[in-house]
């Protein structure tokens, strides 16, 4: 049974809705994915709890005016980020290299030395500590999932506020504000960016925001990134539009991390900034959007058949990557017992169970006890490090890019 529904280009209910970025009503229903776990990054302590994890629907709508994609069925009441929320990617060497290169570049580009930096959604604080260390900067991180008890501390002058960033914290002034992988979770992105702009006031604070890139999903079929936690799927166009509309000048707007992310650098509008207009015409996305529903269903069908073929051949299959991509793959495909386990290098995930489908998360070492024939690689960027780790374990499984 597929979880997708036929394309509906003129839903009645869409008439009343507005794009959350530009308020246009030129909305197209693209795809419906029913009853996925609402929190992919919460892993459960038992199989039973994992299988009965709360679920919600994803009804994707595309705005033709600004090139934004969002979940019209999103209900933030179903989501509650707490300390069990685990989305740190910092255990991956590939991701660490990316974050380190980014921090170095931001410090150089904006001369972040002896400055005040705010990070919105600072997670465990790794990136803020890095920025602080590189430039002798002071940092304040905001995150409701921050765990003071697990703070390793350090020499950096970095503090954390265990809360969502909001206008009540406008008193915290900064020379630089960064916010990575938060904006896509927020139901009212215009209000949020407007409040950031208001908090900055007269200062020439530079902001850096990073989000998943919808073009990677639509164009490159990164369909396992469609998750309930994400209300918004930004394109270059909708992201640029959001910041320009809130009174920022867009200083830079680029794809990053193999096209999977978008990064925007912006500063409060003034007449000295060179204008960047490469993001103003979303028409290029239209052909991808028009084909996406069918391409999505074809890819899901292809993997269902492939898994069934491997299962029939008696292959032991595991997934590498217990992040949102792996959890979504398992839930959309409804793989049953064909995938026996999920490998993840993050020790905080190991021993827990995947929301919705109940596979256990195991450490790479555990593969030695029951060697897999096939490893499904959820992110092509990690293929080399997975190959290296399995070779070090004395294993020679077939790696398949999902
Ligand atoms: Zn729009």
Account of the 3D structure:
The chain has a domain at 313-401: 3-Layer(aba) Sandwich (Rossmann fold), CATH 3.40.50.720. It has helices at 47-51, 93-109, 126-135, 189-200, 214-218, 236-245, 286-312, 324-333, 383-392, and strands at 27-37, 55-63, 68-71, 116-120, 138-142, 158-161, 176-180, 206-212, 232-233, 248-256, 261-268, 317-320, 339-343, 361-362, 374-377, 398-401. With 402 residues, the chain is α/β, with parallel strands linked by helices. Helix 2 crosses helix 3 (126-135). The model is unreliable at 1-12 (pLDDT under 50). 26% of the residues lie in helices and 22% in strands. Strand 4 (116-120), helix 3 (126-135) and strand 5 form a beta-alpha-beta unit. The protein has 9 helices and 16 strands. The chain binds zinc ion.
Ligand species: zinc ion
N/C terminus separation: 20 Å
**Number of E strands:** 16
Largest sheet geometry: 7 strands, mixed
The level-1 CATH class of the domain at 313-401: Alpha Beta
Computed structural class: alpha/beta
- Assign the CATH topology of the domain at 313-401: Rossmann fold
Overall radius of gyration: 21 Å
Instruction: Please provide the ordered H/E string of secondary-structure elements.
Output: EHEEHEHEEEHEHEHEEHEHEEEHE
Mean pLDDT equals 89
How much helix is in the residues? 25-40%
- In terms of quaternary structure, the protein is single chain
